[in-house]
Design goal:
By secondary structure, the protein is of the alpha/beta class. The chain has a domain at about 1-85 and about 160-235: Rossmann fold, CATH 3.40.50.300. It is built from ten helices and ten strands. It has helices at about 40-50, 70-75, 95-100, 110-125, 125-130, 140-155, 170-185, 200-205, 225, 230-235; strands at about 1-10, 15-25, 30-35, 55-60, 65, 80, 160-165, 190-195, 210-215, 215-220. The strands form two sheets. It has a six-stranded mixed sheet, sandwiched between helices. A four-stranded antiparallel sheet has the order 2-1-4-5, with helices on one face. The longest helix has 16 residues, at about 170-185. The radius of gyration is 17 Å and the shape is globular.
Length: about 240
């Protein structure tokens, strides 16, 4: 479903990714773990088109999408819930959600009617968002904003969803709620690539995982296999 091959990317003269490769099969949850600065978020940005890669390929459902605009990649079925949530604070919760559907629905005639079933699905997953639907998004709590970021990505009805650091800045009890949501998405059969600072939590929900260091994949395997890897255990799971 998603294949990344020998990806190089960076910012100006700073090269962050130096040949990263990974795969996410349909219906699977894959975790990308590593230390801060390893290149995880850059990987996500290069996949979704927010950053143009210097070299390498990104295949979405068999189609090469590297270098295309983020809007085009979104229309092809990839949704990105970015690090830091990046919600639109002055807009209402519901307007933020509806923006997630813009890439696949007609913008003028019947937009809200056609978006209604997806909106209902998101509200069933996040009842709090329905309660806050008329509240401006900037006044939501951190946990509610993370729910909103995930819900907005779901409104695109994606083939693949990228979740970048969904637990960042959240209280431990809220982190548990976020991972409970990720488990529900997994059980629903959504294809997920998860970047997460809490490696243990990421491996608890993942079917497969990659370890990134200095812009390259240095280890990979099932969670059970990585738990048996002494180097991974010492660096990330100790």
């Amino acid at each position: 479903m998603l294949v990344v091959e020998d990806l190089y990317a960076g910012y100006g003269t700073s090269k962050v990714l130096t040949g990263a490769s990974l795969k996410v099969a349909q219906g699977r949850t894959v975790a990308l773990i590593g230390a801060n600065g390893a290149g995880k978020t850059t990987t996500m940005r290069a996949i979704s088109g927010m950053l143009k890669p210097d070299k390498g390929r990104v295949l979405l459902d068999g189609k090469a999408v590297q270098g295309q605009d983020a809007s085009r990649i979104a229309r092809l079925g990839l949704a990105h819930a970015p690090e830091g949530r990046k919600i639109f604070g002055p807009l209402t919760t519901e307007d933020n959600l509806l923006l997630g559907a813009y890439s696949r629905l007609p913008l003028f005639f019947g937009f809200r009617t056609k978006a209604a079933p997806d909106l209902e699905r998101v509200y069933n997953l996040f009842p709090l968002l329905q309660e806050r639907r008329l509240q401006t998004a900037g006044t939501l709590s951190g946990g509610e904003q993370q729910m909103l970021a995930i819900g907005r990505a779901l409104m695109a009805n994606p083939k693949v969803m990228l979740l970048d650091e969904p637990s960042m800045g959240l209280a431990p009890v809220i982190v548990q709620e976020v991972f409970a949501t990720i488990r529900r998405l997994k059980e629903a059969g959504l294809t997920l690539l998860l970047v997460e600072q809490f490696a243990k939590s990421a491996l608890e929900v993942a079917d497969y995982a990659y370890v990134m260091e200095r812009g390259r994949i240095v280890a990979e395997g099932t969670p059970a296999e990585l738990h048996r890897d002494k180097r991974v255990l010492a660096a990330y799971l100790g």
